[in-house]
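Researcher: Last one for today. Full complex below.
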Amino acid sequence: AQSVTQLGSHVSVSEGALVLLRCNYSSSVPPYLFWYVQYPNQGLQLLLKYTTGATLVKGINGFEAEFKKSETSFHLTKPSAHMSDAAEYFCAVSGPFQGAQKLVFGQGTRLTINP
Amino acid sequence: EAQVTQNPRYLITVTGKKLTVTCSQNMNHEYMSWYRQDPGLGLRQIYYSMNVEVTDKGDVPEGYKVSRKEKRNFPLILESPSPNQTSLYFCASSDRGGGIQYFGAGTRLSVL
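Model: Here's the assembly. Have a good evening.
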């Protein structure tokens, strides 16, 4: 069975600092990987996804993530945090092919930006 | 505008009183899912549907029912709600397995 672990339920950084949100997954086959963001009182929206091909994936709002198969990781980064990045971030995994409709989420990481 | 619409947004009910949360998408997507979000647990899939009349259990299906009679609609039914079903519920749709999921704004349910 697939699973996702997000290290750190809360992360706090200063405005302008590097953002690093960690995600490790468990899957018996090469997975599809996603990062979603949830702003207060809203649904989730996609930041970026990895299916196949280039392991460094660029998303919206300056975020990117790198798929590292040897480390089973898909960490999310942004070089310079902005106040508007304050939100909850979820890493998710699904299987390819027949398992693709079943999406498993991590516990979420709440990102706080300090002025 | 492409969207997933859930209703109601907020609901307070009592134990045992049947309720339905509606979900509708206007993107002609085949895949639809229901999730519940609880603090510290992230989102957990309740049920999903790959097309009309095709549904399957997710990770936490107990106490819930779904139906998919039309492509655009995927209602979630709680026939006898209990307090442990107090949660934030999200409906989502996707054009294919492994595709981007588009989420509704959520339904906050409290069962007293």
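Chain A has a mean pLDDT of 90. Residues 11 and 80 of chain A are 14 Å apart (CA to CA).
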